[in-house]
What does this fold into?
Amino acid sequence: GAGVSQTPSNKVTEKGKYVELRCDPISGHTALYWYRQSLGQGPEFLIYFQGTGAADDSGLPNDRFFAVRPEGSVSTLKIQRTERGDSAVYLCASSLGGLAGDRPDTQYFGPGTRLTVL
Amino acid sequence: RKEVEQDPGPFNVPEGATVAFNCTYSNSASQSFFWYRQDCRKEPKLLMSVYSSGNEDGRFTAQLNRASQYISLLIRDSKLSDSATYLCVVHMAGGYNKLIFGAGTRLAVHP
It folds into this structure.
């Protein structure tokens, strides 16, 4: 079946511009996550949705970053007034329900959007 | 101190070799542990889950030492196709559902 898809695959923008990154999770997955991966680092958690609501947004670095999931499926990560330091690969993942007891459901990652801020 | 620390490598090994990666984590409340594999310019994919003291899957063995807050991954009989970055991942209990990733250990298997 179809996995997690992300668009665009690459985005080049200029400093100060606004960008939107889109994630289509696996059908039926209620949990959705955004991570950011800088060169030579592991993915860094940004935000987690359970259904339409953001259950944990503790990883968003500042108020220039915002994410929505209005219908509990597709999610959009929005970055205002982009800075060069925002350049990274933005990864989206989804899982069936989030947690099963204390154990997390397996998270399936999309191919990512490579954002370059000039 | 980083929450999850790994030796970045690279580990350069010949085919057929046995190689071991180590990982330490700082939060003793961590409950679940994973190894993910990431190929160059690709997304991470789950390799193994480690819930109790260890787990074995074919050529791969993961071990967990809660007292020392240490996780390891052993790969036996390395294949060229094992070349990738291996990410150590930790999950905390208590309502949090985010994964904490290490920076990864790079493995290069050569003929």
